[in-house]
Amino acid sequence: MKYALFVGCLASVREISYEKASRKVLDELGIEPVTVEDFSCCSPVCLVHGMDYTTGLALTARNICLAEERKLKILTLCASCFETLSKTNSVLKKDPKLRSEVNEILAAANREFKGTTEVTHIIKALYEDVGLEKLKAVVKRPLNDLRVATFYGCHLVRPHDFVEFDDPESPTVLDNLVETLGAKTVYYDQKKGCCIGCGAFFGGVSEEIALELNHRLMKSLGDAKVDCLVTTCPFCFFRFDMGQLQIADKWGEHYDIPVLFYTQLLGLAMKLNPQDLGLSLHRVNTRSLLEKLNAV
Amino acid sequence: MSRKTTKKATTKRPRKPARAKPRFLDELASKIGGSKLNLCIQCGSCVGSCPEASVVPQIFYPRLILQWAQLGLRDKVLSGDAIWICSFCHKCDERCPQGLKLTELWLAMRNLAVEDGHVAKAPATLVKTLCETGRTVAADEFTDEQRSDVGLSRIGLTASKKAMDEIKKIVDKTRLVEKIKRAEGGA
User: Which residue of A has its CA nearest to B145?
Assistant: First the structure.
C-alpha cells in the first residue's frame, strides 16, 4: 500500500510527535508514505475559502494535482486538512462549471485538476484499508486494563457528504480502533464535543473561548478516571495538551491526563519504543501511562 | 415614571433604522452555497448545536444572523464580527431540518464582506502568511533543529521553491493579497 502523505502545517511544524509516530507506525504496517516535496498548506476551508472561494479551491486543488500526477491517494494526518482536501476534491469532481473556473486559475501555475484521486485520513485508512483484523494481529502488548477516552473532534466525521466516514452524530470507529488494541473506552459527557481548536488557531474566535470549552471537557473527563485521552487531529491535540497547562494556570486545576494521537497508542500496543513515537515531546507528561503499560 | 426621565426619552434622537436590502438574499444565492437561506424557519437547531454559541451567545448566535440576512440587513451582517466566528464543526449543517448548509452561508457572507471592505484581522494575517510561506503555521529556525533531533527530515522556512512559485502565480492571478489588503484598509 502506498499513499501521498499529507502531513499538514501543524503536524510538521509544531506537533511533530504526530508525524514521527505516524511514519513509524505506517512503516511497521508495511505502508509506504510517499513524501511529496511540493505539498503546501491545504488552504483551509474556514480560512482561505472564506476570503475568496475560487482562489481557496485553487490553492487546495494544487495539492490534489500533485497526488494525481503521481497516481496516489492522499493520506492526511490532520482532520482539518482531511476536511478541506476531501471537500475540494468532491466539489470539483461533481461541479464541472466550478472545476473549469478553478482550472482556469490553476493554469497560471501550469496545473489542472482532473479528479482522478481520492483523499483519506489516517484513521479512515487504518479502519478501511488496513482493517481491524490486521491491526489486532500486530498487537504485541495488549492494552488491557487501560481506560481510554476517545475524542473524535469534528472533521474526521463531518461534513458527512464530503468525508463520507462513520456517523456524523454518533461516531464509533475510533472506539472500535482503541478496543481492538485491548483497551477499554469510557463514556464522558463531552465525548462528541468540539474543541474549537481550528477556530482559535485561525483567529475567528479568541483562545479564551476555546479554553472555556477545554475546561468543560476536562471537567467531564475528571470523573471518568481515564489513563489517557486519544485524539485524531493535531488541533484537538494542541487544545488538550497545551490546554491542560493553561487550565492549571487559570483555574488551578491539575488534570494531568496524557493526550495521545491514535497512532501513538497503536505504536505502544505494537511494542514500539516510546522514543520513536515522540511521546517525550508532549507537554503533559506521559510517564504515568508508560508505567502502567510497563513501557518505560 | 418621573417627568425628568420622560423628557429625556422624548428629546433623545430617534435611532436610525437599519436599512434593509431586499436583494441581499439573491446576492447570497449567487455566491457559492448561499442558495437556500429563504427556507430557514428560525427553529434554533443551529444555536443548540453550536460550540461557540454555548460559550458566547452574546457575540455568536447563528439563528439571529440568519434572521438579519432574511430581513435584508446586508450591512449589519457583512460589517459585523459575527460571521467570522464559526470554526466549521459542521454540527448545524448536519442537523438543520431545512437542509441549510450554514457553513456555506458563512463562506458566501465572508466572501461578500471582503469584497465590501470588511475582514477579520487575525484570519487576514494568516492568509497572507500562507501566501508568503506556503504554510499557515510558520516554521522558525528551531523547527528543523527539533525535527532533526527526532529523526525527521528538514522542511525549511517555507514550502518548496516550486510550491512557492506556483502559489504566487495562483494568488497573483486572482489578486488575493490585494483583495485582503484592501479589505483590511476598510476600503
Answer: A13
Query: In total, how many domains does chain A have?
Result: 2
Q: What does the pLDDT profile of chain A (296 residues) look like in tens digits?
A: 999 999 999 999 999 999 999 999 999 999 999 999 999 999 999 999 999 999 999 999 999 999 999 999 999 999 999 999 999 999 999 999 999 999 999 999 999 999 999 999 999 999 999 999 999 999 999 999 899 999 999 999 999 999 999 999 999 999 999 999 999 999 999 899 999 999 999 988 889 999 999 999 999 998 889 999 999 999 999 999 999 999 999 999 999 999 999 999 999 999 999 999 999 999 999 999 999 999 88
Query: If DSSP codes are grouped into helix, strand and coil, which group holds residue A182?
Result: coil
Structural domain that includes position A222: 132-292
Measuring CA to CA, which residue among A117, A50, A78, A38 is closest to residue A233? A78
> Residue B94: its chain A contacts at CB < 8 A?
158-160, 168-169
Residue A54 in any domain: the answer is yes
A94 and A217, same domain (yes or no): no
CATH classification of the domain holding A147: 3.40.50.11810
B181: distance to nearest CA of chain A, Å?
A: 11
**What is each CA distance from A113 to A54, A55, A78, A80, B169, in whole angstroms?**
13, 14, 22, 21, 16
Q: Is A36 on the interface with B (CB under 8 A)?
A: no
**Nearest chain A residue to B134, by CA:** A40
Is residue A51 domain-shared with residue A113, that is, in the same domain? yes
In tens, the pLDDT along B10-40 reads: 556 667 767 776 688 888 888 876 668 889 9
A55 contacts B176? CB cut-off 8 A:
yes
**What is the nearest CA distance from B36 to chain A, expressed in angstroms?**
17
Q: In chain A, what residues touch B178 (CB-CB under 8 Å)?
A: none
Shared domain for A146 and A91, answered yes or no, is: no
The SS3 of residue A150 is: strand
User: What is the ipTM, given to two decimal places?
Assistant: 0.95
CATH number at A16 reads 1.20.1050.140
The Cα–Cα gap between A137 and B159 comes to: 38
Three cell numbers, residue B2: 418621573
Nearest by CB to B110, from A50, A169, A205: name it. Answer: A50
**A214-227 pLDDT tens trace:** 999 999 998 889 99
Q: Cα torsion for A199, B113, B36, A197, to the nearest 10°?
A: 0
Decide if domain B19-116 falls under CATH 3.40.50.2000: no
Interface of A with B in 127-156 (CB under 8 A): 154-155
Residues A110 and A167 occupy one common structural domain:
no
